């Protein structure tokens, strides 16, 4: 039998890789666009199919994880996403770039429904493990901006895809050696659905989940994709090159990692609603007021936005973990990520369109309006009661 800490360590690393791989292009597009003789708004939509696949593919991958093997699916994830990233680095035309980014999205779709289900199945303290896992994903987002900026500055944009792609394939080989396939059995101490609400209130859980997942995931993806370009435009007196821009973006994301770690621990002690509502009430106003800011005030407001966005991700994942049993948890997560990432995939085109029409002021105001739905979801969400025994 696999040791839980070994499995969780690789799952955390996979979360890092998943978000890193999906956001390399968002950081590198500023450098790539002139190479292909295109503008930021013209080239960015080539990533849209990959982001849609990131969500849409989760339905199939979650089903395969439950019906076939979560371990085998994760081996495919590591090897496949590594090879796809290397393919992006070898492309010669925008069309080839779009196809390679689509492949990255398809393999990236494996992680969230399958990897998160593996994590929850091996977790003794759900909130803590989801929070720590969220930190790894957040570090993937932050490192993607940081490392991509540095590599693009000193080695060229192609190496920003080739180097992490090769490293990911090596990690996949190690995972295949260290983690074996095993018939799933309920481990003592593993999470098996630890809270309940009355049957009459269950519709409120479903409504809150659907509304929140679509709105918060769209906001998460739009904001993380746009942040490098947003800072490049509005911190022009501070960001003198791609490397420094990457450092500032990464530093902002560190606060999101801290928030996930703290909220993850709090979820083991408090109800979801107690943490859900303050995050929702804070996010929409911050997005709206950031529309007119620049310089240091913008950085400070963006730190607040990142804390709320990533904290909300941790709450969403804990919802699924607490309300589902292991037998169909991967499928539950697949629906969660299908809704979230498919909606988020559309956000890439939305970012490009809004940026062309009204700049980031219009985009941030639109996201602020969208996050009113998150507030509605938080208000609708019922108080739960613990299941003992």
TrEMBL record:
Membrane topology category: Multi-pass membrane protein
ATP-binding among keywords: no
Keywords of the record: Cell membrane, Membrane, Transmembrane, Transmembrane helix, Transport
Pfam family, one: MFS_1
Compartments where located: Cell membrane
Sequence intervals crossing the membrane: 20-40, 46-65, 72-91, 97-123, 135-156, 162-180, 201-223, 243-262, 274-291, 297-315, 335-354, 360-381
The keyword 4Fe-4S is annotated on this UniProt entry: no
Listed InterPro entries: MFS, MFS_dom, MFS_trans_sf, MFS_Transporters
Chief location category: membrane
Domain Major facilitator superfamily (MFS) profile as annotated: residue spans: 7-386
Gene3D superfamilies in the cross-refs: MFS general substrate transporter like domains
Protein name: MFS transporter
């Amino acid at each position: 039998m696999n040791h839980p800490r070994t499995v969780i360590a690789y799952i955390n690393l996979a979360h890092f890789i998943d978000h890193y791989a999906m956001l390399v292009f968002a950081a590198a597009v500023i450098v790539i666009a002139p190479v292909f003789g295109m503008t930021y708004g013209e080239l960015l939509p080539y990533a849209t199919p990959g982001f849609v696949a990131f969500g849409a593919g989760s339905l199939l991958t979650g089903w395969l994880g439950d019906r076939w093997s979560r371990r085998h699916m994760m081996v495919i994830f590591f090897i496949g996403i590594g090879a796809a990233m290397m393919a992006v680095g070898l492309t010669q035309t925008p069309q080839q770039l779009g196809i390679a980014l689509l492949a990255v999205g398809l393999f990236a779709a494996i992680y969230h429904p399958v990897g998160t289900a593996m994590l929850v199945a091996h977790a003794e303290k759900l909130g803590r493990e989801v929070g720590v896992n969220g930190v790894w994903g957040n570090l993937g987002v932050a490192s993607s901006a940081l490392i991509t900026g540095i590599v693009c500055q000193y080695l060229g944009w192609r190496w920003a895809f080739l180097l992490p792609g090769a490293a990911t394939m090596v990690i996949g080989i190690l995972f295949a050696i260290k983690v074996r396939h095993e018939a799933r059995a309920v481990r003592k101490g593993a999470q098996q659905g630890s809270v309940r609400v009355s049957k009459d209130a269950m519709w409120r859980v479903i409504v809150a989940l659907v509304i929140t997942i679509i709105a918060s995931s769209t906001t998460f993806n739009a904001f993380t994709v746009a942040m490098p370009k947003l800072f490049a435009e509005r911190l022009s007196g501070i960001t003198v090159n791609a490397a420094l821009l990457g450092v500032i973006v990464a530093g902002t994301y560190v606060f999101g990692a801290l928030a996930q770690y703290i909220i993850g621990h709090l979820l083991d002690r408090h109800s979801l609603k107690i943490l859900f509502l303050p995050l929702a009430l804070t996010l929409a106003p911050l997005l709206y007021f950031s529309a007119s800011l620049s310089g240091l005030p913008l950085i400070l407001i963006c730190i607040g936005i990142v804390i709320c966005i990533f904290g909300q991700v941790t709450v969403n994942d804990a919802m699924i973990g607490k309300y589902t049993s292991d037998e169909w948890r991967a499928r539950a997560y697949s629906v969660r990520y299908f809704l979230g990432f498919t909606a988020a995939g559309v956000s890439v085109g939305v970012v490009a369109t809004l940026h062309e029409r009204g700049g980031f002021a219009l985009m941030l105001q639109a996201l602020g309006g969208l996050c009113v739905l998150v507030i509605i979801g938080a208000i609708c969400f019922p108080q739960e009661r613990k299941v003992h025994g």
